[in-house]
Amino acid sequence: MQNKGTIIYIGGFEFPDKNAAVHRGISNSKIFRDLGYKVILIGVDKKKSYNGDILKTRKSIQNFETYSEGYPKTKIEWIKYLNSIDKIKTICQEYSDIKLLIAYNFPSIALRKLLIYSKKKNYKIISDCTEWYDSRGNSFIYFILKKFDTFLRMRIIHKKLDGIIVISDFLENYYKKKIKTINIPPLVDLDEKKWFLSDKNNNEKIKLVYSGNPGYNKDRIDWIIEYLFCDDQNTNIELKIIGITRNEYLNLYKEKKHLDKVTFYGKISHEENIKIVESSDFFIFFRDYNRVTRAGFPTKFVESISCGTPIITNKNSNLINYLDSNAVFFCDKNSDLFDVILNANIGKFDRTIFDYRNYIKKVNDFMLSINI
After folding, report:
1. Which of 168, 202, 211, 353 is such that its CA lies 20 to 30 A from the CA of 299?
2. Domain that holds residue 159
């Protein structure tokens, strides 16, 4: 295929597979590669010195060239990280045919500088926006700075870019009348070995799993535990929590009961995570309904569908768009969770709806709309 030029994709990607950001970055990059572009990804590495030479971090991940900026640790390094694009410019100088910069959830001041730089160099620039951050729950100074950064990025700078990739209907509806917009949920590559299915283990217990980083004002693991184990006589449920430890749970939630009935795994590798999800009867998660959850789209939802594991959740984001009666079972506070589990009509469902290949034409049309 003819080389159409180079795309530089910049964000908080922790290579090779340490966070949801890198999974999105790699999957989207496969679309651009299939369309004929060379994609360079710039991420972060918490083990590297912030002041190190970024050109020396070059690696190949799934046949993509990647670079990793050292993660800031001091206040001075954080100020530089949030305001400087010098390391990005250093990498851009290595490539003579750059057509597009993609900034993933980028800090506002640095994004503005990147916009000015791209115009000077005659690059197109777009954002990949997957969050509308909430600054509550932190110190007053952090609250003010985060609120200013979010306002500037979401309401002003994004609208000056050449286009925007969003992850949800909420963000699409906000931007589509102001800027060229494409809505892409989290995607996977079902040709990767980790998505090949194995047989589920059959036993008497009903196996449920939650996996993720609940964070502030997002997932409510405490609701899961409360709903599942309110009846102390119930011993037929097995619940696994992946992503946080028992102590981390205790720091997040007020509800402390029934934790002896839960297996906490903490952070594990992505492949181990997928194996546990795949072997479970249900993936379960509940979310608060607020701007943070409406603006986002849970990667865990996509990965569970791709594993062939049905989901129990409440209505949030735009999950209703991907409803399959055999795959997704909605449950709210007024529902009896056990009734939902016992009456779930589990059958075969389409695992391929989030395969990245389904979005190649849509992305190609978007690229043409921004004149690339």
Report:
1. 202
2. 6-187+356-369
